[in-house]
């Protein structure tokens, strides 16, 4: 069974304030913990009135303090906005307070508009994301003799680091560094298949991870009925339309007919961005969420076993017919995996 986690943007609905949003976030995390979810992640976004998790490490501390067992982390920290040492100290502090419960997902995007990005990054210079990731991991690892700069707290905490991405860049970097990879298919599904293929094909085992470990994001709009799920989804559709129109605001109230309040061309764009979604009542959402991940996991396991057997060249000499059968099955699994992932992308579209 594939474990499920929650990514929360700590949304601020119309008619509510930031404090309400953060209280709702903690309440959701506490319920997620009781329901058996593995992780609860918060994301860094800036200058968006409808998102309350801008100070992501602070919000993570708030959630971790109000829960007991669930892993809490960032999905993610936009590393180019920060000095690696300061991130190491912040998450080293969290890991010290809440041992074996903190995750550090790292992204490369600014998480905001151009003007705000400039305000955040003043003096940080050009993008050096790969170098910064390695530097940050060094601060979180065991200090070496002669190190002039150390993270206190942070050194020796070994906070698990994930690479986040919505393009092929993150997949390549995660594979190169031997790190787990999370793909932002909840808003950028178009590159999912290729990113997953690149990550698996080019993965290099590391001291952190022996084999690829991949997580994808999917939107869930669940209601008591299919109609209610569709109704609730209209809030996110409006929010995406506002953001892409340069009018970010609080999370709009749901509407019965989203096509009446969002321009048709914009609604098509939003529909593509949110195509990796499960929408409906409990039975519909459960069916979509349960079936595909289990199928993908079974296919991946079968394929991995076949690849190991085929890697032993002696199989061709001992049982050539079986080797050919395994090779054919591997090709078939590739097609089945592609179909399953395409279906995943189309959920709720």
TrEMBL record:
InterPro entries found in the cross-reference section? ABC_tran_C, Bact_Lucif_Oxidored, CmoO-like, Luciferase-like_dom, Luciferase-like_sf
- Asked if the Swiss-Prot or TrEMBL record annotates the protein with the keyword Oxidoreductase, the reply is yes
Pfam families attached to this UniProt entry: ABC_tran_CTD, Bac_luciferase
Which gene name belongs to this protein? limB_4
Q: Which family does it belong to?
A: To bacterial alkanal monooxygenase alpha and beta chains.
Known EC number: 1.14.13.107
Specify the enzyme's EC class, one word: oxidoreductase
The family database entries (SUPFAM superfamilies) matched by this protein are listed as:
Bacterial luciferase-like
- The residue ranges crossing the membrane are none
| Listed name of the protein | Limonene 1,2-monooxygenase
Query: Which GO molecular function terms does the record list?
Result: DNA binding; limonene 1,2-monooxygenase [NAD(P)H) activity
Q: What's an example GO cellular component term for this entry?
A: cytosol
Keywords carried by this UniProt record: Monooxygenase, Oxidoreductase
The Luciferase-like domain is annotated at: 19-228
Question: What CDD domains does the entry give?
Answer: Flavin_utilizing_monoxygenases (cd00347)
Residue span, ABC transporter Uup C-terminal domain? 286-347
Keyword Transcription present in the record's keywords: the answer is no
């Amino acid at each position: 069974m594939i474990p499920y986690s929650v990514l929360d943007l700590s949304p601020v609905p119309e008619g509510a304030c930031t404090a309400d949003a953060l209280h709702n976030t903690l309440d959701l995390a506490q319920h997620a913990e009781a329901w058996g979810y593995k992780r609860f992640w918060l994301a860094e976004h800036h200058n968006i009135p409808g998102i309350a998790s801008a100070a992501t490490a602070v919000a993570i501390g708030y959630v971790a303090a109000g829960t007991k067992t669930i892993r809490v982390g960032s999905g993610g920290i936009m590393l180019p906005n920060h000095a690696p040492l300061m991130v190491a100290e912040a998450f080293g502090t969290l890991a010290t307070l809440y041992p074996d419960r903190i995750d550090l997902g790292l992204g490369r995007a600014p998480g905001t508009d151009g003007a705000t990005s400039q305000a955040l990054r003043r003096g940080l210079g050009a993008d050096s994301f790969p170098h910064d990731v390695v530097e940050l991991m060094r601060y979180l690892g065991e200090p070496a003799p002669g190190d002039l700069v150390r993270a206190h707290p942070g050194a020796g905490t070994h906070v698990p680091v994930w690479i986040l991405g919505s393009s092929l860049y993150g997949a390549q970097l995660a594979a190169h560094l031997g790190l787990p990879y999370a793909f932002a298919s909840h808003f950028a599904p178009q590159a999912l298949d290729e990113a997953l293929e690149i990550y698996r094909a080019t993965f290099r085992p590391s001291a952190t991870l022996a084999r690829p470990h991949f997580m994808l994001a999917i939107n869930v709009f669940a209601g008591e009925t299919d109609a209610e799920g569709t109704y609730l989804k209209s809030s996110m559709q409006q929010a995406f339309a506002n953001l892409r129109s340069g009018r970010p605001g609080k999370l709009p109230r749901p509407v019965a007919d989203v096509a009446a309040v969002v321009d048709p061309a914009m609604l098509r764009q939003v529909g593509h961005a949110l195509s990796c979604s499960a929408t409906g009542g409990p039975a519909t959402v459960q069916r979509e969420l349960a079936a595909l991940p289990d199928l993908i996991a079974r296919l991946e396991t079968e394929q991995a076993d076949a690849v190991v057997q085929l890697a032993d060249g002696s199989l061709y000499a001992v049982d050539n017919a079986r080797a050919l059968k395994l090779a054919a099955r591997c090709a078939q699994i590739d097609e089945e995996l592609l179909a399953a992932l395409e279906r995943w992308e189309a959920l709720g579209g």
